[in-house]
Amino acid sequence: MSGVLLFAGVDVGSATTKAVLVDVEGRVVAHTVIPSGGKLAAAATVVLERVLGEARVTMENVAALVSTGYGRESVSGRTKAVTEITCHARGAHTLNPAVRSVIDIGGQDSKAIALDERGGVRRFEMNDKCAAGTGRFLEVMARTLQVGLDEIGPLALSAESPARISSTCTVFAESEVISLLAQDESIPSILAGLCTAIAQRVNSLAARVGMMPEVMMTGGVAKNVGVVRGLEQAVGLPLITPEEPQIVGALGAALIARDLGARRQDATA
After folding, report:
1. Best CA proximity match to 65, nearest among 266, 269, 244, 259
2. Adjacent-strand bridge partners of 80
């Protein structure tokens, strides 16, 4: 693909780092997701190398690079760093222009975003102070219950009824889970209760923003059908889940990079 002009978006999250390449028409050429690990700058370098390799191009083909996410300032060679709120809004709007609300649950934070008809941010709320209602919360509970992360959703949906989890604090909820196990509560019921607890926690965030249809859910937790079902019940609206919910922020960043590249070309024309 020598000579092809592309634009890159890199979303450095606390749990995973994502990269997306788009062409001049805004079409996705390649995307990659890797664990972030302990060194965010290194993760950004690796994910960019991998997405370039997937597309069979080099950085010489990349006209602009926009970084976003928790570690956006750690991305070397970036054209610009943009907040994940703006990038998720842009990515969600591009995937579905009818979307007016976004719920994003990442590794260590959760966000609720209200969009205007152009995909701009009208209002948002974010929880980045507590692991409750995040992917990290689910990881801790999966380890406690000795189930795989990908098993949580299906098992939760198989429960006859959810166990009552009164605390959304990760530490206290873990203690509750251990107590429920001691009381012979079934693992599906406990998982259903955890999914319900997350949904209620995130819904309180969403309620402050005011969810309007259509609502899209992004982030890795969008792959958990138990949490999605719980959120639909809590919010009272169906949720649209993209085929690749983890890359929505990186997609938005890549599209913003495309905008920046286009302005540069116009300025030099």
Report:
1. 259
2. 66
